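User: Hey, quick favor. My workstation is busy. Could you predict this chain's structure for me?
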Amino acid sequence: MSAPSIRSLAILLAMLTAVAPFAVDMYLPAMQAMAKDLATPIHYVEISVSTFLLGFAIGQLIGGPASDHFGRKPMIAIGLILFAITSLMLTQTESIDQLLILRALQAIGGGMATVNSSAMIRDLFAGDEMAKVLSMVAIVMMSAPLIAPMLGALVVELLNWQAIFLCLSIYSVLVMLLLLWRLPETNPKNSNRTKDEEDKPSLWQSYKRVLSHRQAMGYIIAISFGFSGMFVFITSSAFTYLEYFSVSVQLFPFLFGANVLVMMLMNRINVWALNHYASANILTVGLLIQLICGIGLVIASYNQPNLYFIVALNMLFVGSLGLIAANATAGALNYFPDISGTATAVIGVTEFTLGAIVGIFWSYLHELQFIATAQHTLSPMAWVMASCALIGLVGLKVLSKTKVLASKPL
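Assistant: No problem, here it is.
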């Protein structure tokens, strides 16, 4: 078997990376139908987004270090097999408890597999080639959330919500078979370690170094809470659009996908702006946009909000991640040229763990409001999104000292 070209490799790894956004976004249009079939309020179904994010973080913690010892392909296979089996089991879900447990297990498998995508790129490429492959894979990360809700809405309309998880199971099996056939092993297990390898710091020492680095943690807090605000929107989107504004299942994917289009636009603006402005300043602008939109959502939530005004604010809030993600990630990784893989893992796990916790916190406030007022409004979502933006901005300014960024990293 001949080795795949750079383009083919990028496509293969992009297919692997797409497992996560498909699993998160494809079933969003079906949440209303799922809540009805499972005889539970829709915000309990929305909690399954948080359980997925938490499981995905756990899967990354397991899959990353394990692939260093046992190879990338075995962990991809194990992760995708777990993902496929639990996806199939989700088609037989009969209660909300089963849904939450199986979604967490599904996510662990997905995290174990997809964490190896960036690891394999680091194994094979450096410099401009690595940047090229990463950019090609990143296109899928932005396009998958755009098409996933549309595919989910189509499946629900033609079949039922269970068919969505059947599709995910089939997709993961096909991806696994294709990767096992075409993907080379980039990190074969090697028992003959050299002295330099033995002298390398342990995994725990590397994690400790990242977590105790004050400036880097400022950037990690910025990106993690920026993404957490987005995850609150994702978690609450079914309630916001389908229930509160009574939007049709057919229209929902377009309202949801509009956020991704703005994110793509912001990403293009970021590429241009980096030629003229400091990365830290662009990051600050992105966080300020999120905060302003969050405040706007809070004000609107108490004043009979208009659907398209809320859509516009959500578009700008989520879209501003195009200014936040790359600049915050680069700012953090700048301090760890020798352990960038560990630093990347810390960023990913922090993003998904905080996203899960914040999503659950929104659901708790959502239910608490109903107990106190006998009604559901948009204010819990708005307050949590605004708070995430504020914490991200304050964390960046307090910890990272962006004004002296030009000084040599520690």
